[in-house]
């Protein structure tokens, strides 16, 4: 039984609704901080609308506050975003049947949380992924608009507490996975250990995150290769 | 800073955010058969999110104590199979409460 486009879109939307509500406080905090530190409100909103990412746009906005030249901002934001290449690589295996044009549009929706929820599905239709990404996008931009409006009143220190929501979502995503699979737990702990070690290596910066992710996933794949059948489950 | 500066930097930021997302989706259009690569890609979500969370989470709030408390709360509730949103809400509430006490914002 084929679901209609609208059904697939709404199934995706419902699946992604928790992310929508989780993103709003995080982008709210981003906007309060950015406006509070002198960026015009329309700049802050435009950043959220065109970037739709947390770490990268935070880095970019912080650099813009002090007038950093575009090529420096571009380079540092790019390094923060390299992890999306890893994510899109694995996501590509779930989207093999989609036409290129659709994939290039849907690529805008690849964020950490959306990616993870998408990877839990065996196969992703375009409309399902569109629905999955649409809610979080609304939450992200909506939270930014509210934050940009409130930015003039709220102290940035209070808003910073909202940043924890992002990490809480990461934890809520990872824990159920590592609970049911020992290899996943191993990969998680390895990634954490490598990430902590690389943080203390001077000059590594954001590359530490990439190395830790690649390293942990590679060690996991080497020690606990997934049988072909499982690999798509 | 003028409008042109903001617009050009935002454009560059959008570009370096879009390209890493789109490039692999556009290039990898066949199923990967290699068992190691497949396993590597399957483990990638856990690896990236774990590495992103620790140690960064401990410097995400105004004090490391509020972060530690929030991580503990998040771990417990996600272990008990609470979903994304309640876990995020409980952790955020934890940070507020701990920072209220620690920085005396109650007074």
Description:
Chain A is built from 13 helices and no strands. Chain A is an all-alpha fold and 233 residues long. Mean pLDDT of chain A is 89; it is low at 229-233. The longest helix of chain B is centred in the N-terminal third of the chain and has 25 residues, at 3-27. Chain B has a domain at 61-107. In chain B, helix 3 (64-79) runs antiparallel to helix 4. The two termini of chain B are 39 Å apart. Chains A and B meet through helix 1, helix 2, helix 3, helix 4 and helix 5 of A and helix 1, helix 2, helix 3 and helix 4 of B.
Unreliable sequence segments of chain B:
none
Low-confidence stretches of chain A: 229-233
H and E order of chain A: HHHHHHHHHHHHH
Biggest sheet record of chain A = none
- Cα-atom Rg of chain A, whole angstroms? 19 Å
Q: How helix-rich are the residues of chain A, as a percent range?
A: over 70%
Shape of chain B: flat
Q: Classify the beta-strand content of chain B into a percent band.
A: under 5%
For the record, give the distance between the C-alpha atoms at the N and C termini of chain A, rounded to a whole number: 21 Å
- Report the sheet-strand fraction of chain A: under 5%
Mean pLDDT of chain B: 89
List keywords for this structure.
heterodimer; A: 233 residues; mainly alpha; 2 domains; 13 helices; globular; B: 107 residues; 4 helices; 0% strand; flat
Question: What's the SSE blueprint?
Answer:
The complex is a heterodimer of chains A (233) and B (107).
Chain A: H1 5-36, H2 41-51, H3 55-65, H4 70-81, H5 83-92, H6 100-106, H7 112-119, H8 126-150, H9 156-160, H10 164-180, H11 182-199, H12 207-223, H13 228-231
Helix pairs in contact in A: 1-2, 1-8, 1-10, 2-8, 3-4, 5-7, 10-11, 11-12
Chain B: H1 3-27, H2 35-53, H3 64-79, H4 84-102
Helix pairs in contact in B: 3-4
